[in-house]
Amino acid sequence: MKDSSRSRRINDWVSRQLQGTAAKLPAWGSDRRERTDRRNRAFWSVLYGSFNPRRRRPARRLNDSRFHPIDWYSAPLLAVSIGILLFSAVDAFLTGILLGHGADEINPVMAVLVYRSVAVFAAFKMAMTGISLVVMVILARYRFMRVIRVEMALYAVLAAYAWLIGYEIWMLKGVGFMPGL
Which of 10, 132, 151, 179 is the most buried (most CB within 10 A)? Predict the structure, then answer.
């Protein structure tokens, strides 16, 4: 019974269309929406989204795409990122001091830059470190080569920088630049 009434409704609609008595569509360009569009409040959206993020975890439907961005990262990840940036700046400073005392830069790319201009060396080092950190933080929940999480690689980079700075301080003590330490 319901199927026959549905088909009658469809037929009625078709017959109205053919007879030209169907309801007219709104004119092209007319808009029924309200003029106060929520997308016009860009500053409010950024401010609200900063304190009330929606994507804290990857999507539940993991088969939809391979990239699952989130917009809220953990506080330890921020601390590790800031630590890596600070260690990178300290490394650049200590490298400059060591080069002044007769050490050689082992990294061939940085060696070309440091002997041309110390400012270009420092800017390039900080830019590459910053860009790498942004990419690694975005991909923090992924696994590198399906073995190690990128977040753990960030912790390893922080530990490597700490060891490197310790080694540079040890070298400076050997030269006699830091006798008190």
Answer: 151
Q: What is the pLDDT of residues 142-179, one digit of tens each?
A: 777 878 888 899 999 999 999 999 999 999 888 776 65
154, 84 in Cβ contact below 8 A? yes
pLDDT at 32: 58
One-letter amino acid for residue 55 of the chain: R
Return the number of other C-beta atoms located less than 10 Å from residue 161's C-beta. Answer: 19
Pairwise CA distance, residues 122 & 114, whole Å: 8
Residue 148, beta-bridge partner list: 144
Fill in the amino acid letter for 57: R
Q: Could you identify the residue written with the tokens 């950024």?
A: 46
Cα angle 172, 87, 112 (rounded to 5 degrees) comes to 70
Confidence of residue 80 (pLDDT cuts 50, 70, 90): very high
N- to C-terminal Cα distance for the chain? Answer: 94
Q: Are 121 and 130 in contact (CB under 8 A)?
A: no
Distance CA 28, CA 69 (A): 38
Give the pLDDT confidence score for residue 58 in this predicted structure: 56
- Tokens 């439907």, located at residue: 61
